[in-house]
Specification:
The structure holds two protein chains of two kinds.
Chain A lengths: L1 H14 L4 H17 L14 H8 L27 E6 L2 E6 L8 E4 L13 H9 L4 E5 L9 E7 L7 E10 L4 E10 L5 E10 L4 E8 L6 E10 L4 E8 L4 E10 L5 E10 L4 E10 L5 E10 L4 E10 L7 E10 L5 E10 L5 E9 L3 H9 L4 H17 L5 H10 L5
Chain B lengths: L2 H10 L11 E3 L6 H10 L4 H16 L22 E3 L14 H9 L13 E7 L2 E5 L2 H6 L3 E4 H7 L1 H7 L10 H9 L4 E5 L8 E7 L10 E6 L4 E9 L6 E4 L2 E6 L4 E8 L11 E4 L2 E6 L5 E8 L4 E4 L2 E4 L5 E10 L4 E4 L2 E4 L5 E11 L3 E10 L7 E11 L4 E10 L5 E10 L2 H9 L4 H17 L4 H14 L6
Parallel strand pairs in B: 3-7, 6-8, 7-9, 8-11, 9-12, 10-13, 11-14, 12-15, 13-16, 14-17, 15-18, 16-19, 17-20, 18-21, 19-22, 20-22, 21-23, 22-24, 23-25
Antiparallel strand pairs in B: 1-2, 3-4, 5-6
Classes of the chains: A alpha/beta, B alpha/beta.
Chain lengths: ~425, ~475
């Protein structure tokens, strides 16, 4: 891998117009990545999912070079119907379209040449990889007191021109005071066996509201890693919803720093997996000041040969009195070969807090099935009804009605 | 200082902090093959035992000290320790208690351990381990009548080599982790219990561990075998003198329950925790593992952990036999600068296996407490279930309470439920108690005892009372 990655890196430096300083910086990141390589199960964070092995097994040799000199045609059929929205379209990792037609243009600033300053002291080798290889980083700023009229949909598409590639994406959002953003990430993959590495950074100022919905629904053979870092000021609210279902392997990490009083974070997730899929959600909620709140609800339905993992951590600093933290993970195992792993973790240094977590896993309740069947439903129908009810619980947590209905339609859930 | 404050001051002192001035025989300092041979030789061990130790030592040399635990400690120099220390008077083992060094008897009397025959009324058979060797075992005759073997490990190696050979190292093999392997190489003594088929042990068996000598590590090894249909309840208690240095205690405990057998293992751990500035104290790095080997067997761990500078242990159950049951009840209290990283592992291998975990953690002062546990349900463990509850109580905002459960479910017929809460003593509860005439200290004591009740109930009577007191004492001075 090392040889491949080095030649690919040189090729990119030659063909792209990076300044000398940028190249220097990127080299540092590359070396940092090379030192550790892809994470293995020896790292505590990757205990349940050995990425290095997964890449080796399902992709083999990765290639890191992507030719961004030509543009791809945007296939409009992927666009969401029945919902007016703004768009950012990524195809094979290249931004093909940025469209904010529904908004006041002086209220939104889009900087396509943003230098991603890495404030995070990190040991995340995938972030190093992203920093070394990502092409352009867009920074989107929502100005003071402005709420986007329509949601923003980010399309992550790939087409069959690429195979066994590593794609690195980065987006930076700044939400100024009293602003709000609804963001949907939609994954449409035409390509197979790629490793897609996505980093988002959100900076929420006072009273800002962020709602992020990540929808990975279409069956595909890619490996996906997505990392959200959310910084929150006073009174800000973040809501993250993850539908984890389509990719072969997917890991969503959400790191949330509640730095302002009365800020709150909500994370809700659904795993609906089948046939050899392996997904993970890892959350870290850092309660750093007084009176902050977090709530997490993760549910899994696991079919044949599938595996899901949830690692959730609530950290409460000694200053963060009056913290309210809650975590719940539930799983239904449908097959003898399915597996559920959880590590709900509390790390607490303040005494006047209310923190709890719960985790439960098991099979579908036979009594409930019997109840439904005795009322005339078939076994299959009863099972579906129970599973839908189980998952609906999480979908109902979506606070935006428009998007809630969209999600319900997408996964075929009816009330 | 008024009287109450003085009382508190007095209670804060570690009651068992004295040391006994007694002549010792020690192995040369350091860890090498010669020291292991020295230990084996002085104990007149057969060759297979020495081979067992040397094999473990070979493996130990390749192992690295783990460092994933939450409480970090300064590096231990394993060459700067004495691995064997025994009271000189034990050189030729006394035949009866009358021949025992009076100083030793004195020590145990101070600790409140009934070694002498007049303490018979107490009805508990005690094996006392002083530094590296077992000094006395009481009630031997009565137990022998029933065919129960309760003696020191060294004696068992001499007198019951077949049993020892058959079971030693089957639950904690010589190829285990760093501290367990170190113990396999250098263990000095400990207790051995064998309960024959169908026998219910008529009394509580108990071992009392005492570290006395300085610069000494204590490495004892306990092996309990409950044969088919038998039952035994076993207790252990521990204390050590107050010293400025940190002392290492790395014991191995192996439990084996055959078909329909039940073992109940209770620990009241009160090693010296260090002074209020965190100086000195015992590093309690113990490996405890029980194997439910037979059908319908049951192993239950109960622990009250109030002592040690650092406690780092996970009493575990391997539920191999069908319908076997594993239980873990724990109270861990840390105060001042104490640190604890403790919990359990429940590994479900057999069908219809059940496990229950109840853990109560209380941290006060500058201490740090971690519950770390694993529940692993194997794909063959059909119809098994686990229930876990871990609650933490925090007193003040200088301390920490953490919960790190690992949950692995590979079986669709199995259920796992896990709950955890963290809170502090509520103002309302305190107010209620104080209104009724309790002072704040008493109120806290009462509430904490209520918080721990579920676990205290699991202890045998005599120890429950002692543990309850211990819970109160450990938290003295932490209210405010």
């Amino acid at each position: 891998m090392t040889e491949q990655i080095k030649t690919d890196f040189d090729k990119i430096v030659k063909t792209s117009a990076f300044s000398e300083k940028d190249v220097e910086q990127k080299k540092i990141y590359l070396n940092k990545f090379l030192k550790t390589g892809f994470p293995t199960r020896k790292l505590e964070n990757w205990k349940f999912s050995d990425l290095s092995q997964i890449i080796k097994k399902s992709i083999g040799e990765l290639s890191f070079y992507n030719d961004y000199s030509f543009s791809n045609k945007v296939d409009t059929s992927i666009f969401v119907e029945g919902l007016e929205h703004n768009k950012i379209v990524f195809i094979n990792g290249r931004v093909e379209k940025v469209d904010f037609t529904h908004e006041d243009h002086d209220k939104i600033e889009i900087n396509s040449d943003f230098k991603f300053v890495n404030r995070l002291e990190h040991n995340n080798s995938l972030l190093s990889l992203n920093n070394a290889f990502s092409n352009k980083c867009y920074k989107i700023t929502i100005k003071k007191n402005y709420s986007l009229k329509k949601p923003l949909v980010v399309y992550h598409s790939t087409n069959n021109k690429i195979k066994s590639k590593n794609i690195n994406l980065k987006l930076e959002f700044q939400l100024e005071q009293n602003s709000s953003l609804r963001l949907i990430d939609l994954f449409n993959d035409g390509a197979e066996n790629n490793f897609i590495n996505i980093f988002y950074n959100f900076d929420l100022k006072e009273n800002a509201i962020l709602k992020n919905y990540k929808i990975d629904k279409l069956q595909n053979k890619n490996i996906r890693y997505s990392y959200n870092n959310i910084e929150q000021d006073n009174n800000s609210v973040s809501e993250t919803f993850v539908l984890s279902s389509g990719s072969n392997f997917s890991k969503n990490e959400i790191n949330c720093n509640l730095k302002g009083e009365y800020s709150s974070a909500f994370v809700n997730g659904i795993f609906s997996l089948n046939e050899g899929q392996h997904h993970e959600i890892r959350t870290i909620i850092n309660h750093l000041v007084e009176n902050t709140k977090s709530y997490q609800l993760i549910k899994s339905v696991l079919g044949e040969n599938s595996k899901s993992a949830y690692q959730g951590k609530i950290f409460v600093d000694s200053k963060a009195q009056k913290t309210d933290g809650y975590q719940l993970s539930k799983a239904i195992l449908l097959d003898e070969t399915s597996e559920f792993n959880a590590k709900p973790e509390l790390e607490i240094y303040a005494d006047d807090v209310k923190c709890s977590h719960g985790s439960a896993s098991g099979s579908l309740d036979e009594n409930s099935i019997f109840y439904l069947m005795s009322r005339g439903l078939s076994y299959k129908q009863s099972k579906e009804l129970l599973i839908n009810g189980f998952l609906l619980d999480v979908v109902e947590k979506i606070t935006d009605t428009e998007i809630k209905n969209l999600v319900k339609n997408m996964i075929g859930l009816k009330e | 200082m008024d009287k109450r404050e003085k009382d508190i001051e007095k209670l804060k002192d570690y009651k068992y902090g004295f040391s006994t001035d007694i002549e010792n025989i020690r192995a040369p300092k350091g860890l090498n093959e010669d020291v292991i041979k020295f230990i084996s030789n002085i104990k007149k061990e057969p060759k297979w035992m020495l081979d067992f130790r040397l094999k473990a030592f070979e493996r130990f040399k390749q192992l690295k000290e783990p460092n994933w635990q939450k409480p970090k400690y300064p590096k231990i120099d394993y060459q700067d320790l004495y691995y064997y220390s025994a009271p000189k008077s034990m050189n030729d083992k006394p035949k009866s208690l009358d021949e025992l060094d009076p100083k030793l008897l004195e020590t145990y009397k101070k600790l409140g351990i009934p070694l002498q025959e007049q303490a018979r009324l107490n009805g508990i058979a005690v094996d006392a381990v002083f530094d590296s060797v077992s000094v006395a075992t009481t009630f031997k005759d009565e137990l022998t009548k029933q065919g129960i073997i309760f003696c020191s490990m060294s004696e068992a190696i001499q007198k019951h080599p077949d049993l020892v050979k058959k079971y030693l190292g089957t639950v904690i093999p010589t190829t285990d982790h760093f501290f367990a392997t170190l113990n396999s190489a250098v263990f000095t003594d400990g207790s051995f219990v064998y309960i024959p088929e169908g026998i219910k042990c008529p009394m509580e068996l108990s071992t009392y561990f005492r570290i006395n000598a300085s610069e000494t590590g204590q490495f004892e090894r306990t092996l309990i075998i409950a044969d088919k249909g038998s039952y035994v309840s076993y207790l252990e208690g521990c204390t050590a003198p107050m010293r400025d240095e940190n002392q290492l205690h790395a014991a191995n405990v192996e439990l084996i329950a055959l078909d329909d057998a039940e073992i109940k293992y209770s620990t009241v751990q009160n090693w010296y925790p260090g002074d209020e500035n965190g100086k000195g104290g015992i590093y309690n790095f113990v490996t405890k593992r029980g194997l439910c080997k037979g059908k319908n067997s049951k192993i239950s761990w109960t622990q009250v952990e109030t002592g040690s500078a650092i406690t780092w242990k996970y009493p575990s159950c391997i539920l191999k036999g069908d319908n076997s049951i594993g239980e873990f009840y724990s109270i861990a209290i840390t105060n001042n600068h104490q640190k604890a990283d403790t919990g359990t592992k429940m590994i479900h291998l057999g069908k219809n296996t059940k496990s229950k975990i109840v853990s109560k953690g209380i941290s006060a002062g500058f201490s740090d407490m971690t519950y770390r546990g694993l529940v692993d349900i194997n794909s063959k463990a059909k119809n098994s279930s686990n229930y876990t509850q871990c609650d933490s109580l925090l007193m003040g905002n200088k301390c920490g309470a953490h919960t790190v459960p690992y949950i692995k479910n590979k079986n669709l017929d199995s259920n796992i439920a896990h709950e955890a809460t963290t809170s502090k003593i509520s103002e309302e509860q305190l107010h209620y108690c104080q209104q009724r005439g309790l002072n704040p200290e008493e109120a806290v004591g009462l509430i904490v005892n209520g918080f721990c009740k579920e676990v205290l109930q699991q202890l045998p009577m005599e120890f429950a009372v002692e543990a309850q007191k211990l819970v109160g004492i450990s938290l003295e001075g932490s209210v405010g």
